[in-house]
Amino acid sequence: MRRPAKFVLGTIMVSFFLRPTKGWLLAILVLQSCTHASAAAATAADFKPVIKAHLARYPAMELQDCYKLLYQACLGSEHAVGDTAAATRWLDQELASLGDGPVEPAIDPLTPDGRIVRVHLRPFVQQHGDKARLAQAFVETGQTFRGSRETLAAAWEQVVQLAAARELPFTAAAARTYGKEMAAAGNPAVHHSEKFTRLYHPAYRVIAREYLPGLLPDQ
Length: 219
Description:
Layout: H1 5-18, H2 22-43, H3 47-57, H4 63-75, H5 84-96, E1 107-109, E2 116-120, H6 121-126, H7 131-144, H8 149-164, H9 172-184, H10 194-200, E3 204-208
Antiparallel strand pairs: 1-2, 2-3
Helix pairs in contact: 2-8, 4-8, 5-7, 8-9
């Protein structure tokens, strides 16, 4: 008697999954890999507008400046300050030596959802920001924010894509190589490039959006 097609297919599937074959294990690994890759890509899908916005403001931005931007967006501030007193002293020192810089917003989102921001110190001072609150926000962000290197890796793919489309001032090959080198080194924090520092005199603190209320008079 001829078995129905659905019965035969069901028998094959049951037999396949009941036997711990190499094919079965490979199928699971491939499925997991695809799932993880899709999730990471979705997490970083909207970083392109952020990257483009920063390039428009800082046209001399180099590879390591782009990496620093995404590092901060995905992993938070690279500066570990354990207490508010130390953070306040560091902030006081930097505020005392502030020079001229480019026109920047006081609050500068680093992530598509605005969860992590840079607070630029020049407009912060001009708008009479609360220094004590900023120091506290910086410390608390470092203590509470937990990003992921998987998100950083997926975000960096956006850099490679933009470079391939000639929308960034470096090649896709250079971006891909730099990303691999940083990943192999464990994704360390980096300084801004010498050119970026010389032209733009960066001065900011990276904090989580949840600490913005009360930071500026209009917040």
